[in-house]
Design goal:
Elements (H helix, E strand, L loop, with lengths): L1 H7 L3 H17 L12 H9 L2 H14 L3 E3 L5 E2 L12 E2 L10 E3 H9 L6 H25 L24 H10 L8 H5 L4 E12 L2 E13 L15 H8 L7 E8 L2 E2 L4 H4 L15 H12 L6 H14 L8
Antiparallel strand pairs: 1-4, 2-3, 5-6, 5-7, 7-8
Helix pairs in contact: 1-2, 1-6, 4-5, 4-6, 11-12
Length: about 325
């Protein structure tokens, strides 16, 4: 059931909220706190129709109390006290007790108190299996037809490009192998061909108890292509909040303002085409940059892609990021 909710939810926050509410009502309305005979029609509709936890609870209770006997002693007998010692004229106060009997059968106790019957044990178990099958089928349908784009569950796929086939001579091949090297850093032309990232009038407000609180107030800035920009400020100034907002990672609150790439609105694929390393994401000190990138490439790309092609892709990334001097 919770897997179905997770697959049908557009994001993690909605999935957690819906799952928590359903779990709460499933526990409250499973027949333990309030037996079905002591409630209104609306409760019985949920109890019998859409609460698989109720059927599981009834099956377990029937299994536990099937051969159990409860013994009544002392104050559990009515009347009790001096002179009342003949069980033939007493009755136990437990639900399901019979006059003149000291012991109460477990099956009678749950039948009278909770409307759970031993004869329905396997029916309840079959109902649990039936719910499981329904949920599995529903989850498969949701996974097949429901999509949420870059805000829900996504799978990153690396599409292999078709190689361009040209006819070359052996001399050209040997000459190209000798001259095919990467420079230490991108050229000026490559830098100027980058993307300018700007933001203006950025406001971010979150709901708090008793109202709302504004964390960003008309923030503006820009990042030039080919440059590394450091965002500095005191603790609690809102650096992480600004970066989360610019990377479109915020899921609660209200975000207003303009965030542009080359003067245009952000595309829906912005989160997929950009990398965002949070402050807790650190580089392992025992591996080099090249080893870390190769490890990531081996895990992210398909197993059918040759290792040599993965290594070549890593070298290209190192070259584009200007990390050739610190790769090892």
């Amino acid at each position: 059931m919770f897997r179905l909710i997770g697959n049908a939810s557009p994001n993690l926050d909605i999935g957690h909220t819906v799952s928590g509410v359903i779990l709460l009502f499933s526990i409250l309305l499973n027949g333990y706190l309030k037996p079905p005979g002591q409630t209104g029609w609306w409760y019985r509709w949920i109890y019998w129709g859409i609460n698989p936890l109720a059927y599981a609870y009834k099956a377990l209770m029937a299994n536990e109390f099937r051969n159990l006997e409860l013994e009544c002693t002392g104050m559990s007998l009515v009347p009790s006290g001096p002179g009342f010692d003949d069980i033939a004229h007493q009755v136990c106060t437990l639900q399901g007790a019979r006059p003149g009997e000291l012991n109460v059968l477990g099956r009678d106790y749950i039948a009278v108190g909770y409307q759970i019957y031993i004869k329905d044990q396997w029916k309840n178990f079959a109902a649990v299996i039936g719910y499981w099958i329904v949920f599995v089928i529903a989850m498969a349908v949701v996974m097949e037809f429901v999509e949420f784009g870059n805000t829900g569950y996504t799978i990153r796929v690396y599409k292999r490009r078709k190689p361009k086939v040209t006819l070359v001579t052996e001399d050209q091949v040997s000459a190209s192998k000798e001259t095919l090297t990467f420079s230490d850093s991108p050229t000026d032309e490559q830098i100027l061909a980058g993307t300018t990232f700007t933001w203006k009038d950025l406001n971010y407000t979150v709901p708090v108890k008793g109202g709302s609180r504004q964390l960003l107030d008309n923030v503006a800035g820009f990042i030039k292509p080919g440059q590394m920009t450091a965002l500095m400020g005191s603790s609690g100034a809102g650096k992480t909040t600004l970066l989360d907002s610019l990377s479109q990672r915020k899921t609660i609150g209200k975000l207003e303002g303009q965030v542009l790439m080359n003067g245009a609105e952000l595309a829906r694929s912005f989160r997929r085409s950009t990398g965002y390393a949070e402050q807790l994401d650190v580089h392992a000190p025992l591996v080099t940059v090249r080893e870390a990138l190769r490890f990531s490439a081996y895990l992210r790309q398909e197993a059918s892609v040759p290792d040599a092609e993965k290594d070549e892709y890593v070298e290209r990334v190192i070259y584009l990021l200007g990390m050739s001097e610190i790769a090892d």
